[in-house]
Automatic annotation (TrEMBL):
It holds the Pfam family Rce1-like. One of its GO terms (molecular function) is endopeptidase activity. This is Caax family protease. GO terms for biological process: CAAX-box protein maturation; proteolysis. The keyword Ribonucleoprotein does not apply.
Amino acid sequence: MQLEKKSIYILITYIIVYLLPSFLNSFFKLSTTMIFNVQIIDYVLGAIILSFLAFHNMPHNLPEQHQRSVWQTILWGLLGFIVVIFLQSVILRLIAQMGGQTASQNTSSLLAIIKRYPLYTLAIVVGAPVMEEIVFRKVLFGNLATALHFMNPKVSQVVTALIASGLFAFAHADGHLILYGAIGLWFCWLYQHTGRIQTSMIAHILMNTLVVLPILMTTV
């Protein structure tokens, strides 16, 4: 019961964090600079609050039954980052060969923001990855699999991995559903393999860092 209750709190908090900047803007007509400053604070605080909810008195779920050591967690996080970059490259190459669009409008928009407001990097490199791993991997994959106790544990994890990865892909809303779905499944596997959500967090943070690093270097 504690697991389900905390999961609901996390989902509600995530929705509030996600909608808060637009809500404030609709009431106070914020300037562009103010909107981005609000988003930075909102995402970083959101990551802190969700981390507290996720790690403070949260019972272990199915993927967390057998946890790797801290060093193994870090190692698999680094390896997971290398694999996800390779995975992206392969999928985008296949999309290009089939005549599809490989450019990500979502990524392009975020990079344009960072170029003008470098501090926005905090939202993309820290806030978003931490929150997304807690919501999509820990709650919608791990905790939901645990809640489906009437199913075989392995089957429930496969089902919830597909659900979580599908929602993760739709949440990014830039047309690359296969790419984001594959990334989501890989992060689910990393989490399940090590029993620690920090593993997929490391891979996710490094992935986002690699994307924004060239822009940051040009603004220095």
